[in-house]
Amino acid sequence: MRILVLTKRQYMSQDLLDDRYGRFRELPLALVSIGHEVTGICLSYRPRDEGRRDDVVDNRSVAWHALNAKRLLPWGRQSYWRTIDTIGREFCPDLVWACSDALHAILGVRVAKRLGVPVVVDLYDNLESYPATRIPGVTSAFRRALRHADGITCISRPLARYVLNTTTSKGLIEVIENGVPGGLFRPLDQRESRDALGLPTDCQLIGTAGAISRSRGIETLFQAFAGLSQEYPNIHLALAGPLDKGLLIPRYPRVHYLGMLPSSKVPTFLSALDIAIIANRDSDFGKYCFPQKFYECVACGIPVVAARVGVLEDVLQNSPRHLFAPEDAESLAEAVRGQLKNPTPLPTAVPTWNTLAGKLGVFFEAVQLHSTSRRAGAG
Q1: What is the Cα–Cα distance from 64 to 48, expressed in whole angstroms?
Q2: What is the pTM of this model?
């Protein structure tokens, strides 16, 4: 099958082309590895270099066409729509996979109609909780796009249930969670990992990697650590990831903020920890997301303590020691105490992007067949 992927270029504080990271880079490459042909357009909302960039890994290749958002205007030789027409003529896609935000869901339906092929919209979060949907008309246009989509991929089962309950979509729905690159996330020597990052080697180290954000409940972790640091004179907190504007890291002597790490260093960071913390809030975002770091922590063999919300409440329902009440600092502190006393890595199976691509490819084929049948019936 020939698949056209539409996505924004920057997401999760990473650049798809420059940082070579994330769901919308890994799944297209994995689809190529199982025999599909994939090309994509990645749209940047801030000025970036433009043109074709081939992402090649182990003889797998995805041709990305980088465009800036101004190319959505209809004029100019390099307009978005001229690029779509060229891809339609030369690549002849069988299906469009529209990813990353509400705009791309809306664009995806228009592009698929222009090319005369089915469209699958990917919901890697509850996109209605994103700031873009506050723009007048965006939410209604997004819901129309879901209604007209031939298929929808959801990052979590709670999000799939939400879509079923709140939309009138007649398309097929499949859950495609996040995964990890095969071989990258694995247990590493703790002492060597701490040395590599300049972290103290002789301590109890808890921490988190990812967005250091109020929207994820990070202040609950700060409050819990303030209490734990009084109980445990040897406990330290390590943080890595993008920091909310205006959010201050506590100035405790045992707090270490490493900033943004390259994706290749994240396994080193996780392996340096005694306990990984996944904070979240019981919000429209927290209820339906699938924290990327969860499977990464599990693959590195690190005990995890996570907020009891959304998909992780389901995944860890038989492991209550690993859960804490969201936005409850004492509940988080108690879960950390339990893991410090009896550290227990999770035996959860971790899917790779290649495994998920197999499931995604089967779903695309089902959508194509379903779409063909619907159109034949309508005719």
Answers
A1: 14
A2: 0.92
Contact status, residue 108 vs residue 121, Cβ threshold 8 Å: yes
* pLDDT score for 265: 95
β-pairing, 275-278 vs 304-307, is parallel
Residues 6+ apart with CB under 8 A from 119: 95, 96, 97, 98, 108, 109, 111, 112, 148, 149, 150, 151
For 115-168, give the secondary structure using H, E and C: HCCCEEEEECCCHHHCHHHHCCCHHHHHHHHHHHCCEEEECCHHHHHHHHHHCC
C-alpha distances (whole Å) from 176 to each of 1, 102, 159, 291, 322 are: 19, 18, 11, 13, 24
Cα 86 from Cα 67, distance rounded (Å): 14
Q: What CATH number does domain 2-179+353-378 carry, 3.40.50.2000, 1.10.10.10, 1.10.1610.10, 3.40.50.620?
A: 3.40.50.2000
Is residue 37 scored above 90 in pLDDT? yes
List pLDDT tens digits, range 264-318. Answer: 999 999 999 999 999 999 998 999 999 989 999 999 999 999 999 999 999 999 9
pLDDT at residue 310, rounded to an integer = 93
In the block, tokens 């705009």 appear at 103
| Nearest CA among 79, 33, 36, 40 for reference residue 58 | 33
